[in-house]
Amino acid sequence: RKEVEQDPGPFNVPEGATVAFNCTYSNSASQSFFWYRQDCRKEPKLLMSVYSSGNEDGRFTAQLNRASQYISLLIRDSKLSDSATYLCAVNRVTGNQFYFGTGTSLTVIP
Amino acid sequence: ETGVTQSPTHLIKTRGQQVTLRCSSQSGHNTVSWYQQALGQGPQFIFQYYREEENGRGNFPPRFSGLQFPNYSSELNVNALELDDSALYLCASSLGVNTEAFFGQGTRLTVV
Predict the structure, then answer these.
(1) What CA–CA distance (Å, rounded) separates A85 from B13?
(2) Which residues contact B49 (CB under 8 A, 6 or more apart)?
(3) Are B6 and B107 spatial neighbours (Cβ–Cβ below 8 Å)?
(4) DSSP H or E stretch at residue A106
(5) Using CA atoms, how far apart are residues B5 and B85, in angstroms rounded to an integer?
(6) Which of B9, B21, B32, B37 to probe by mutation at the A interface, max A CB count within 10 Å?
């Protein structure tokens, strides 16, 4: 089983829509969780860290569910500029390994 | 910009050769991690260096090795290159081992 699994999509949504991505992780020893955004042929850019209490940054909301071992990202009022691949990342302190999902592709359509 | 720089940006090598990739971490960051990203995949963790010591390693063979210098910059060395080593190699720096990591623009390696 992969350490981190994401639905690869693609998600095609109209402008203004709300879209949610989930990411599951297999190891309960995982300690830190992040969402990154990656544009085509570019490096991943940190979107937000994910805290146990959940956190929000403008139109973006991240949640962590330790019991079910998943993290989520909600994007409200989608913009054309949100089109990208969204990667979740999980840091397992034991052995200090950092795992990324394969990414979820989002296209926002005018 | 993250302040993490990698060189070179592109590289073509022949199977069996050796390659060295370089990374300068963001000012103040003492931890550097290296990743391999194949097309259509997420980044795969190669290893991490914290204060010049290897501090975690992914599932990569020993021909992938690294180094971190006193100024926290880092190198990734790959020996005996194989065609499957063709990928985007990403370096990420962070302040500490369990915190947000910021990526450089990557080195695109093609092995022919």
Answers:
(1) 29
(2) B31, B32, B33, B55, B66, B67, B68, B74
(3) yes
(4) strand A104-109
(5) 21
(6) B37
Nearest to B94 by CA among B9, B8, B4, B6: B4
How many beta-carbon pairs under 8 angstroms link A with B?
55
| Structure confidence at residue A70 (pLDDT) | 92
pLDDT tens figures, B60-88: 999 999 999 999 999 999 999 999 999 99
Q: Which amino acid is at B74?
A: S
Q: Between chains, do B105 and A43 touch, taking CB under 8 Å as contact?
A: yes
pLDDT for the residue numbered B80: 98
B106 CB neighbours in chain A (<8 A) are 43
> What per-residue confidence (pLDDT) applies to A3?
86
Which phi and psi angles does B3 have, rounded to 5°?
85, 5
List of chain A residues whose C-beta atoms are within 8 Å of the C-beta of residue B98: 31-32, 91, 93, 96
Residue with tokens 């209490």: A53
Q: What is chain A's length?
A: 110
Q: In whole angstroms, what is the distance from residue B47 CA to residue B70 CA?
A: 18
Q: Which of residues 34-73 of B touch A (CB under 8 A)?
A: 35, 40-45, 48, 55-58
